[in-house]
């Protein structure tokens, strides 16, 4: 293995590049040793990414045993300084774990980020997502959805007499769900 001496110029040229998938969600992976030396050397690692793209990100920010400073000490450590994903990320989270978490949420990425955040908090549970109507209270909108989807049976000729708000409120109270913008997300 040939050692590569990391220079200030190299750091300046590599900082801020984009690696990984094609989504708008990313983590900013930063070289810890360079940061402690006063240089910001990081890469925007976009989701979803695979092992090869992660290796490319490490290579871009000079993390690995082959990268050394002027004294021969390697640049081995990284940390996450910023992120834009719909779940919490810690400074020292493993990128592979974050990629797996993102992959587990990928089918919900067409929903607004705030809906995905709620689903991420309940990862491992099965969500049911109701898109609510506009122009009513949240509970009333949920009540209409429950009746229209046949989850609460009401004969057609009695529907104008129903208190949809009470139906929605009772359902929201008695389930493990929450209102999120124009949606009600319930977990089984």
Strand order of the largest sheet: 2-4-3-7
Classify the fold: give the CATH topology of the largest domain. Answer: Ubiquitin-like (UB roll)
Name the shape in a single word: rod-shaped
What distance separates the N and C termini?
A: 52 Å
Briefly, what CATH class of the largest domain?
A: Alpha Beta
Give the % helix.
25-40%
Mean pLDDT: 91
Percent of residues in beta strands = 15-25%
Architecture overview:
The chain is rod-shaped, with a radius of gyration of 24 Å. Strands 2-4-3-7 form a four-stranded mixed beta sheet. It has two domains: about 90 residues, Antirestriction protein ArdA, domain 1 (Ubiquitin-like (UB roll)); about 70 residues, Arc Repressor Mutant, subunit A, CATH 1.10.10. The chain is built from seven helices and ten strands. Helices cover about 35% and strands about 25% of the residues. Helix 6 crosses helix 7.
Quick recap:
Helices cover 34% and strands 24% of the residues. With 188 residues, the protein is an alpha+beta fold.
Task: Name the features.
188 residues; Ubiquitin-like (UB roll); Arc Repressor Mutant, subunit A; 3-stranded mixed beta sheet; 34% helix; 24% strand; rod-shaped
């Amino acid at each position: 293995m040939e050692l590569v001496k990391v220079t200030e110029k190299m750091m300046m040229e590599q900082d801020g590049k984009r690696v990984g998938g094609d989504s708008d969600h990313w983590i900013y992976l930063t070289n810890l040793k360079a940061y402690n030396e006063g240089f910001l050397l990081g890469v925007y690692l976009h989701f979803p990414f695979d092992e090869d793209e992660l290796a490319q990100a490490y290579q871009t920010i000079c993390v690995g045993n082959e990268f050394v400073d002027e004294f021969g000490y390697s640049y081995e450590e990284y940390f996450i300084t910023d992120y834009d994903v719909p779940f919490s990320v810690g400074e020292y989270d493993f990128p592979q774990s974050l990629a797996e978490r993102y992959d587990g949420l990928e089918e919900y990425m067409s929903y607004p980020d705030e809906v995905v955040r709620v689903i991420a908090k309940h990862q491992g549970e099965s969500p049911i997502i109701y898109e609510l109507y506009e122009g009513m209270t949240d509970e009333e909108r949920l009540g209409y959805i429950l009746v229209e989807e046949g989850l609460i049976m009401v004969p057609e000729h009695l529907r104008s007499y129903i208190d949809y708000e009470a139906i929605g409120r009772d359902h929201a109270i008695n389930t493990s769900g929450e209102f999120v913008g124009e949606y009600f997300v319930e977990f089984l």
